[in-house]
Design a protein that fits this description.
This protein has 219 residues and is an alpha/beta fold. It is 49% helix and 15% strand. The chain is built from nine helices and eight strands. Strands 2-6-1-7-8 form a five-stranded parallel sheet. Strand 3 and strand 4 form a beta hairpin. The chain is globular, with a radius of gyration of 16 Å. The two termini are 20 Å apart. The model has no long low-confidence stretch (mean pLDDT 96). The structure holds 2'-deoxycytidine-5'-monophosphate. The site of 2'-deoxycytidine-5'-monophosphate (DC) has 14 residues, from helix 2, helix 4 and helix 8. This is Cytidylate kinase. Belongs to the cytidylate kinase family. Type 1 subfamily. It catalyses: CMP + ATP = CDP + ADP; dCMP + ATP = dCDP + ADP. One of its GO terms (molecular function) is CMP kinase activity.
Amino acid sequence: MPKLIVTLDGPAGVGKSTMAKQLAKELSIPYLDTGAMFRAIAWKLGEGAWRWDETELEGEMAGFDFTLSGVGETSILSLNGVEIGDEIRTEQVGMWASNVATLPVVRTFLKQAQRSIGDRFALVAEGRDMGTAIFPDAPYKFFLDATVEERARRRFLQLRDMGKPAELEELKEQIEARDLQDRSRTVAPLKPADDAITIDTTDLSKTEVFEALVQGVKK
Ligand code: DC
């Protein structure tokens, strides 16, 4: 029987990870943060990696093994047996991730890794192309959206809580630049799947967004 897959896509800072964790907990299944996979690759290979040639990148990535364990909010994503930590959670690494994410060779590598995790587990899968490219047959697809001002504010609070204070206006500019690149790349650009439910979360509380997701899955 095909496994339950719920896809959660949307732009930077919209709250996908928070919702993915909560929904995964509600459904007692793991969540997969695919942004963390792009970030981990970018972090490991360094800022300039997106300019490397394909063969070199392929060679490096051949040594990368992503694994998922746990359930709900305690799902753990590891790279080569080591849990991916908060070192990837800066806007700078987000931009490096967005840069490598434009490369077909990186997307092909991660597509295989993501699908092979999806073969083994029911998942709440969050990212940019979960509903369009990676799990097009998923029975439940959501696209979360919000104004860039609101997303910058949310990211600002999230970073502050992690002890990584940032400047609000600068965050807004970084998020806008990243979104533009994520939406305009040729391979698997950020966009809602035709059959996704779009939720504008700008004026919604976390509880309201969560309830909308749970309603959508129950339907
Ligand atoms: O969700 P995030 O901010 O952690 O993602 C970081 C970057 O990774 C994002 O700007 C684009 C890329 N990404 C992607 O291209 N496809 C995904 N499914 C997830 C992330």
